[in-house]
Amino acid sequence: MGAEGLEVELRRADPDRWLTSCFISEPAARADVAALYLFDHELARARRAASTPLLAEIRLTWWREALDEIFGRGPARRHPVAEALAGAARRRGLDRAPLEAMIDGHIAAIDQMQLDAAAALAWADAVEGSAAVLAATILDPAASADAAAPAGRAWGLALLGRAGLAAPLVLGPPLRQALAEARTGARSLSIAALPAALPARLARFDLAGRNPGPLAKQLSLVWAAATGRV
Q1: For residue 139, what pLDDT is reported?
Q2: How much is the average pLDDT of 92-109?
Q3: What is the Cα–Cα distance from 50 to 109, expressed in whole angstroms?
């Protein structure tokens, strides 16, 4: 799948993060971040599409095996997202550990219908915190990529609320704290790496119980990108 195809697929699968990716100026970096976000989408879909926890774990194990190939010497398996992620990982010198953590986070929550605050934070850090750090690494290898982790945590908590996997009363306090930490962390990111933290800006709507349209989201992201305040 070429760069244009990755962006088209991301827009279909994850329109919010596609919006945030539009603030990545370099086309090659934008495509590699799209590959990462589509990997994240595939992991989430593995759980949603499976009829039993066992089938979900089998699907997630398939992606763990894909990582074996991506970080091995041979070719990646013939799957458009796996191939795109392999290209991004090899070009950018990405570590395997955060990608593995994303899979582990999903597996840990497979058979839980509702997450408490501790489990929600653990999932958000493992899955979306890792994704944000990887995105920042892609965008600026010299950046303090860990500074993007709180933004990923905030985004992860917002996603749990949207999916009904954690109650609003459970998510409210940790999401508010994560957003405050995300704003602080964003100040440590370079202009190039800032788009990795922009999903946190959209998570502010979730904290307020709002579901605005694409234009309102885009305007909010423009302001955040211009000011550096997520």
Answers
A1: 97
A2: 96
A3: 14
Q: How many CA atoms lie within 13 A of 26 on its CB side?
A: 11
Closest CA relative to residue 17, chosen from 164, 160, 197: 197
Whether pTM exceeds 0.90:
yes
| Residue 36: closest CA among 103, 125, 136, 134 | 134
Q: Mapping DSSP to helix (H, G, I), strand (E, B) and coil, where does residue 141 land?
A: coil
AA letter at 28: A
What tokens were used for 118?
């501790």
Rg (the chain; Cα; Å): 16
pLDDT digits (tens, 9 = 90+) for 56-76: 899 999 999 999 999 987 787
102 contacts 126 by C-beta, under 8 angstroms: yes
Express each pLDDT in 158-210 by its tens digit: 999 999 999 999 999 999 999 999 999 999 999 999 999 999 999 999 999 99
Q: Are 83 and 34 in contact (CB under 8 A)?
A: no
Cα(171)–Cα(220) distance, rounded to whole angstroms?
A: 22
